[in-house]
TrEMBL record:
Domain of life the protein comes from: Bacteria
Chain segments annotated as transmembrane: none
Name under which the protein is recorded: Sulfotransferase family protein
Originating organism: Streptomyces oceani
């Protein structure tokens, strides 16, 4: 079960925090990318999005930490379910954060041309998109992400709630530009003799998402073709 709960929203350095936590021994660390890779994870989070009872130990079985969405949207529930876990709130300038989400994440939920056709063969990607819509776009942002002022207000209110409700001794408010020192001090571990990881800048993130969808489409197409050929031979 979880030792670290990442309460920071996507595009606040959550990919870098995931890499850092895993380097420090707090891995595996859950992240939205787990849902891309695992139909089972998508199914578990689809059930969470539907609002029924949740067994968090099942959702996070095998994970020591979580960052990014969808977990960050449920930081209260996770903090209550795991009262000994530490909470890390990654933060970023609100305007820059909004621009990053608008340019890098929101398009994939709106049929971005680079990702067209991505659901043709793999049903779990369809389920993933629906789950993200329920939790993030219709849930966290109440269907109003395209209204910049309202989206930023939701982001700031989220951060303020974490600061207000989590015991200060249990909470680290963290900017990844600060590097290893505050993170390692908070966790009580030695600082590694290597640079702090910085992952998923905007250009790299867009390329990664497009490449991953292309890979999944190709895999699904190959599987579907093979199944069709096998059927034709019968």
């Amino acid at each position: 079960m979880l030792d670290i709960i990442g309460a920071g929203f996507a595009r606040t350095g959550t990919g870098s925090l995931k890499a850092a936590l895993e380097r420090l021994g707090y891995g595996p660390c859950h992240h939205m990318r787990e849902l891309f890779e695992s139909p089972r994870q998508t199914a578990l989070w689809s059930a969470v999005a539907d609002g029924g009872p949740v067994d968090w130990s099942e959702v996070y079985a095998g994970y020591r930490a979580t960052t990014d969405l969808p977990g960050a949207a449920y930081w209260r529930e996770l903090a209550a379910a795991r009262p000994t876990a530490k909470v890390i709130l990654t933060v970023r300038d609100p305007q820059r954060w909004y621009a990053s989400v608008r340019d890098n994440i929101h398009p994939s939920a709106q049929g971005d041309a680079a990702l067209d056709g991505r659901h043709d063969v793999l049903p779990h990607l369809r389920d993933l998109e629906e789950t993200v819509r329920k939790i993030v776009w219709d849930g966290f942002f109440a269907g109003e992400f395209t209204d910049e002022a309202r989206a930023i207000r939701a982001f700031e209110e989220h951060n303020a709630a974490v600061r207000r409700e989590v015991d200060p001794e249990r909470l680290l408010v963290f900017e990844v530009a600060q590097g290893w020192e505050p993170l390692c001090s908070f966790l009580g571990v030695e600082i590694p003799d290597e640079p702090f990881p910085h992952e998923n800048d905007s250009a790299t993130f867009r390329e990664m998402v497009a490449a991953r969808f292309a890979e999944l489409r190709a895999t699904g197409t190959s599987e579907a073709t093979g199944a069709g050929e096998a059927t034709a031979e019968r």
